[in-house]
Fold these 3 entries.
Entry 1:
Amino acid sequence: MKSRTLGAKGPRVSAIGLGCMGMSQSYGGAFDPEESLATIRRALELGVNFLDTADVYGPYVNEELVGRAIQGRRDEVFLASKCGLVPGASAPDQRNGSPEYIRTACDASLRRLGVSTIDLYYLHRVDPKTPIEESVGAMAALVRAGKVRFLGLSEVSPATLRRAQAVHPITAVQSEYSLWTRDPEQGILATCRELGVGFVPFSPLGRGFLSGNVRSLDPLPPTDFRRGLPRFQGENLARNLELVDRLAEVAQQKGCTPAQLALGWVLSRGPDVVPIPGTKRRRYLEENAAAVDLVLSPSDLAAIENAVPPSEVAGARYSAERMATVNR
């Protein structure tokens, strides 16, 4: 497995990580802890050492799952978790970045994960009720206490990142980024590079859509949250399937899968970009991990861009209510 550096002075991690959220929430279906544990352990065998979880995933059970998977293998793992979204609460009251809440959440995450230190600790969303300086100040205290090694932010604006960086060095920003979600190119990616902050794309496969495995909502479990996302609805879905079919044609010519091509494009955005595709199955993990060896020429990249131009993506990422919580 190739490696990359998170930010100008950050740690070395595997060039591709593993997002663990879908193992216990959002995509419906039965929770299969044994396959999920096997997937995490297979990731470590492949050298995928950058594991991403959060207290709100499940809630709680995701961190417990990751903790079980890495027991006895802590030194093989770069472990990321998050705080700032209150499990069980609903938007817009879910966000809590108060210092007291952050301290309590971190201690609880450490217990569930069964570790003494979290390598990378993110503020999951910016709390509009708490100045970012106060939130990051509390997180910086966790670094001084040895409970956290590096700090991160998720779905922040360039202005918020600058304010946070003035309080304590930020190692990574995590935001949604893929061929059909190009928001980071509107400012935050450039700001990360200016400040020496690494960039961690989540959902680099567009919630699995870019893999070509989702053709309709019918096979999705009733609790799959994609059923409520605008891009998966009606005419939007039909128009977006046309883009996926174009991407599949390019992948066929390249001799790889559409998922590998989509991940290869994200990896090509720069050596400071470390995507964390999520999966709960070993076969998809292995497919994703192989994308790091894909070599894309300028003509390949042009063909990919032509297949999925951002202007042709139909529908918003989220509902209006949820969109109000990102890029803040």
Entry 2:
Amino acid sequence: MDFDLIIIGSGPGGYVAAIRASQLKMKVAVVEKAELGGVCLNWGCIPTKALLKSAHVLDYLNHASEFGIKISGEIKADFSSIISRSRTIAEGRSKGVQFLFRKNNITHIMGFGRLSGQNNIEVENPDGSIKVYSAKNIILATGARSKELPNLKQDGKKIIGYREAMTLPEQPASLLVVGSGAIGSEFANFYRLLGTEVTLVELLPRLVPNEDEEISKQLERSFKKLKIRIMTDSSVESVDTSYDKCHVTVKTPKGNEKVETDIVLSAVGVTPNIDGIGLESAGVKTERGKIVVDDYYRTSVPGIYAIGDVIPGPALAHVASAEGIICVEKMAGLEVDPLDYNNIPSCTYTSPEIASCGMTEAAAREAGYDIKVGKFPFTASGKANASGAKEGFVKLIFDSAYGELLGAHMIGESVTEMISEIVVARKLETTGREIIKSVHPHPTMSEAIMDAAAAAYDEAINI
């Protein structure tokens, strides 16, 4: 065998799995056809956060007078510089993965990899030549791409996906975003803060439909304050791109409505990259467009594993990384617990931010729990008031019988940093009483967690 392990894909699942495998003394290679780091580092998590940071800085400056600061002269976003900064940061992170590969003696094989048998990978090099490599074990970590709807075919110019949305040559005057999940909501927020007229279309009755209902209502209020036009219970039926502007037909509860916009951004989810990677010839089982795996990411073929967006579960970077580590540790013979998918944090980096973990209130009730719910608004937080960030709240859900923390849902400034406390608390089976008695620093945004727990037990001091 050429290697102990070959991984196809260098995203947050693949590159993390490779480094952990190298630490466990495996000889590792990673096959990657594009930039190291995959979509997350190059076209997803990192560059979008860079874009949003620029937009938030602009928003701060536009509200400087509220903080007692006077700015003379025009405050203007330089769109091309904002895009350039984002790309520079992404390129830097990709180079960071190159460094980590060198540090950990990981072989980078450039090209498109596909299975060619149980222990073989066929790699099509950039020049079109083919080379076959062998390994005792193979991990498929090929990620996902922007999902295309039959009536919303992306042309890369007027109807675009997330890649084009972060590299447009100029800022559009108007934008219609289809889908209000994390990707759609973040881009709607980014472009609106820069001054673009934004319409957000969501098929379901509320924004960020996977979040707790109260979170959705707060985000809608915040977005309406920004003058984002929101169309829920609505769907894009067709887009006519033959004019200067896109003529979009939107089906609403009141009938069809015509909307004109410069660009349509399709943000309706992602499609796993499982086509053309040799699954059928190798005998790897799939269901509903995803690879079937067990608790340790073994596929139906011995020696072939799969992690990340190509398998069932949340399509999140940190989930892929955790799966990669568990996969290679089990492969190396270590004692490993399966990943607890009920304790995975989810974050949306809008303004205000959204972070959640565990059951929503509706899910807890449907599961038959007798629950206690505690909610603490940031309007009552000293730090939030001092920071000018009073929008949002922290909501905690506890099982009444044992005090188990069933779920946490937050919307507000810095909540994506605060959710980790909840993940650790749930991992350690912390109760509501223990959270109340854990002294939090004052003044901080995070003390809202302690206050929300106290509110659930009718012991709230500050509200």
Entry 3:
Amino acid sequence: MIKCSECGYENIDGLDYCDGCGAKLTAAAAPAPAGENGGAAPSEPPAAGASPAAPAEEIPAAPPPSETPTGEIKPPHETPAPAMAAEAPAAPEASAKEAPAAAAESSSRAKLQVVRGGRKGQEFPLEDGNNLVGRWDPETGSFPEVDLDQDDPEAKISRKHALIRFEAGKITVEDIGSLNGTYVNRQPRLMPGNPVELKSGDEIIIGKTFLKLVVDPVS
């Protein structure tokens, strides 16, 4: 007998359509062969060297949205993203080596003071770095840092006579090719291009003008 899957009417074998409702009949599937003890047939063993199939990993379902007492639906709880690591502080701009140099340059003040042959008592503060000693140049309009034009009526001082360098507390003087020479503490004339180190109280003779170096510590 063939039982109709639509109405349950049992039809005679060999019919294609149900006598009760007219629906198309489907032949029942043949039963699977039983094992030796009447159970299901054993599955085929895996091939040699093949690992048994791992069970499929179950994916947990997302929690359903919850409803608040007021009727508002809240979305499922989400794990917050980890906070970004704090940025490392920027390196200080000034290096440790620059600080001692700056302190050395500002640890003292130096000046030249006219003691003879010009405006006695006139002072010329020395700047950090190079200080040109000479006279005003009308052709180029340049003024030296130590301008002795008014202290040299006989023009014994060259326009570019000497160079005094004040760096990191050290002071030197050198002749730069003057006509009448440069002298320190009434010693022999300085050779051009050969700097000589000075200390506070030293006397420099340029032309007929006598200058005294005065170095004062910064308080």
